[in-house]
Amino acid sequence: MKKCRISFCGAGKWVRTFHVPELEKRTDRFEIRGFYDVFPENATAAAIGKYRIFSSLDELLGDPETDVILAATKPVDTHYEVAMRLLEAGKNVILEKPMTYSSKQCDELIAKAREKKVIFTVNHNLRFSVCMKAAREVIRSGHVGTPVSVDIVSPRSWYENIDFSNYAVHMIDQALALNRSPLKEVSGATVHPDDPMSSCGYGEALLRFEQPPVIHLSLKPSPMQQAVPDDHPFRGYFRFLVCGTQDTFGISDLSHIPNREQLLCGKYYYFDRKEPDFSRPEFVGSLDKAWYDYFYESWANGAPLPVSPEEARNNIRCAELITESAKLNRTLEATGMLPARKEFIL
Fold first, then answer.
1. How many CA atoms, within 13 angstroms, populate the side-chain half-sphere of residue 235?
2. Taking a C-beta distance cutoff of 8 angstroms, is the pair 226, 106 a contact?
């Protein structure tokens, strides 16, 4: 099995605590080459004496042993310039989410990747969470009847002017993955509606599509602890709540996301009448696959990307519509969205 050799442009905390451990679980498929960061101490901390440290971006770009460069720079305003530089150099690029703050910039990056004929994708890893997979399986199998609505809730207490898109963009990606029909209307509310997408605090959105279900996104504060211990998932905070014509399915989000074992034991989800059957081999097999597993199949075997750049761009366009709706205090037509691809990866 050939190895995909990955180097990093940006070596902050998220690279060190997420990307490096994920890649080190898959040493049969991936090899970490090295790190570049404008703050050399970050690259040193990530390399931990095992991997190469690049002294400049030019040195990273000139490394013939690097197959893919993952760009994880901060703040998000740097994503466009850095990704464009990498793509112009003809490099395969993984960009940390959110893609950028501007759908126009996203379009320019997509065009450059096509021109250079290189791989370009965005790390929306939470599309492949166990909760997300379970919600989609329930919808696919008709366990709730015809789905009417889906609530995606994140209990985050963000009253300050903190980046709305940093976590909300995950929820938008999940929403557009669950409902593949064209988005028609968007209604949004944020704490700081007059501020740009980079600093609008917590928020909510209602997304209406050409076909059901309607999807409600809620990024709002919740208590860190319960006054009275209660592990009943229906009375907790949900990561997902799928409501249909026959039943309701919810997954508890009491400060954790259930893993494979917790999902299959039935303790961490709520179902009114009859428990879902999660035994379908294709579904059970997918529970052990994460974003990097799908990406390797794309890089090595030409499989569709786990997240196409157009999908990542639609997430940003949807976030633009949410924040504009909040500012105008009215529902907006979902203009400027690209058609969803048919081959959905999950």
1. 7
2. no
Q: Which two tokens stand for residue 243?
A: 């409501």
| CA nearest neighbour of 19 among 239, 258, 290, 288 | 290
| pLDDT tens digits for range 336-346 | 999 888 766 66
Beta bridge partners of 185: 208, 333
SS3 239: strand
Q: Which residue do the tokens 């969803």 mark? A: 340
Structure tokens at 104: 């126009």
Alpha helix locations (H) across the chain? 13-14, 20-24, 40-47, 57-61, 79-88, 103-116, 130-141, 164-178, 260-264, 281-286, 291-301, 309-328
Contact 305, 121 (CB under 8 A): yes
C-alpha atoms less than 13 angstroms from C-alpha of 297 in its C-beta half-sphere: 12
Digit-coded pLDDT (tens) for 215-267: 999 876 655 455 555 554 444 456 899 999 999 999 876 556 678 888 888 87
C-alpha distances in angstroms, 299 versus 23, 29, 31, 94, 124? 14, 10, 13, 11, 17
- The neighbour count for residue 211, using CB atoms within 10 Å, is 10
Distances from the Cα of 307 to the Cαs of 130, 268, 344, in angstroms? 17, 28, 9
Does residue 82 contact residue 72 with C-beta atoms inside 8 Å?
no
Residue that the structure tokens 């929306």 belong to: 124
Taking the alpha carbons of 12, 18, 21, 22 in that order, is the dihedral positive or negative? Answer: negative
Overall pTM surpassing 0.90 (yes/no): yes
For helices 103-116 and 309-328, the axis angle rounded to 10 degrees is 170
